[in-house]
């Protein structure tokens, strides 16, 4: 499988694992403190080939993802669930199976700072996605179905809006979940 876009990862282990599964080029951030040169390298790659941000499903990975998305509009994002990318002691893209990595790369969405809000904060709350005893489980299911990692409430609300999901879309996802239980 050949990937046209440049994939942004955190380090060389991520690069090595990805290159063992797909034909791709990567840019490594070398951790949480992304310097201006790396941001500029990503910006150029975005303009010429496109960029997929594929960072670890942990706090540093989310910080890196947010930093890049804020600096460079229109990047594609791939997420992998923490439970699919961990060993007993570590979490990271490099620990995921080939199948899980390939699935993550097939479910991309583009970050757009200017996307119209399709799901109000009030609708989000009325759906029980924050503040209830089962809110975390509901968020986890929606995030899993949509391949959005495991975001907290605020981040899930932002990502649902980036995907242009409406209250009705989310209600449908929640109803489907109840049918499968």
UniProtKB/TrEMBL annotation:
Alphabetized UniProt keyword annotations: Cytoplasm, Endonuclease, Hydrolase, Magnesium, Metal-binding, Nuclease, Ribosome biogenesis, RNA-binding, rRNA processing, rRNA-binding
First-listed, main subcellular location of the protein, grouped into a coarse class: cytoplasm
Gene Ontology BP annotations: rRNA processing
Domain of life (superkingdom): Bacteria
UniProt GO cellular component terms: cytoplasm
Location relative to the cell: Cytoplasm
Enzyme kind, highest EC tier: hydrolase
A molecular function (GO) term: rRNA binding
InterPro entries (alphabetical): RNase_M5, RNase_M5_C, TOPRIM_dom, TOPRIM_RNase_M5-like
Coiled-coil residue windows: none
A Pfam entry, by short name: DUF4093
E.C. numbers: 3.1.26.8
Catalytic activity as recorded in UniProt: Endonucleolytic cleavage of RNA, removing 21 and 42 nucleotides, respectively, from the 5'- and 3'-termini of a 5S-rRNA precursor
Classification via SMART domains: TOPRIM
Toprim domain boundaries: 4-88
Function: Required for correct processing of both the 5' and 3' ends of 5S rRNA precursor. Cleaves both sides of a double-stranded region yielding mature 5S rRNA in one step.
UniProt family annotation: Belongs to the ribonuclease M5 family.
NCBIfam families registered for this protein in UniProt: 5S_RNA_mat_M5
Designated name of the protein: Ribonuclease M5
Organism of provenance: Amedibacterium intestinale
């Amino acid at each position: 499988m050949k990937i046209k876009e440049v994939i942004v990862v955190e380090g060389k282990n991520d690069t090595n694992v990805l290159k063992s599964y797909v034909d791709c080029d990567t840019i490594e951030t070398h951790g949480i403190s992304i310097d201006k040169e790396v941001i500029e390298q990503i910006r150029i790659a975005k303009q010429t080939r496109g960029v997929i941000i594929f960072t670890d499903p942990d706090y540093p990975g989310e910080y890196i993802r947010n930093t890049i998305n804020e600096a460079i509009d229109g990047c594609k994002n791939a997420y992998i669930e923490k439970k699919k990318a961990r060993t007993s002691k570590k979490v990271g893209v490099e620990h995921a199976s080939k199948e899980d990595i390939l699935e993550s790369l097939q479910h991309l969405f583009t970050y757009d700072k200017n996307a119209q809000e399709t799901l109000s904060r009030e609708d989000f709350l009325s759906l029980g996605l924050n503040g209830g005893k089962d809110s975390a489980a509901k968020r986890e299911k929606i995030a899993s179905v949509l391949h959005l990692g495991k975001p907290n409430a605020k981040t899930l609300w932002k990502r649902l809006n980036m995907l242009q999901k409406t209250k009705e879309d989310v209600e449908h996802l929640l109803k489907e979940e109840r049918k499968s239980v």
